[in-house]
Amino acid sequence: MEINIGKFIFKEISPRRYVALVTPSELREAVEAVMMEESYFSSLTAIDFPKEGKIELNYIFWSVKHRAALILKVTVDRSNAVVPTIIDIVPGALGGELEAYDLMGVIFEGNNKLRRGFLASEDVVEKGIYPLRKDSGV
Hints:
This protein has helices spanning 27-35, 94-104, 122-126, and strands spanning 2-5, 8-14, 17-22, 39-49, 54-63, 68-77, 82-84, 107-109. With 138 residues, the protein is α/β, with parallel strands linked by helices. It has a single domain (2-126), classed as 2-Layer Sandwich (Beta Polymerase, domain 2). The strands form two sheets. A six-stranded mixed beta sheet has the order 1-2-3-6-5-4. β7, α2 (94-104) and β8 form a beta-alpha-beta unit. The chain is globular, with a radius of gyration of 15 Å. The termini are far apart.
């Protein structure tokens, strides 16, 4: 089963859970489309795949209209982990962006509130380590 929201196709991965793969350049458009579907932002997760050289970001929304979780999945290169911010569209995403930046090193372009030490300890920050990257040694 699928849910079509604008040009984005969400495929069912389990009951009431749907995923759409989007590029960083499509992210803001996809978030705006999802928010128009009576949806609420739930969380942002970042997953490190060092062997593949990528970081996966999952933007999780709950759609009242579809009575399902809608997940926007974005993959970025580990060596250039940059995506546009969504905090101007979804202010509640600030905490997730701060966490992904501080612990994984993902840069959210346009978010001028990014800072190290939000969650990472001072000694880790001083060493320039992103502690949730699997090869961080922490």
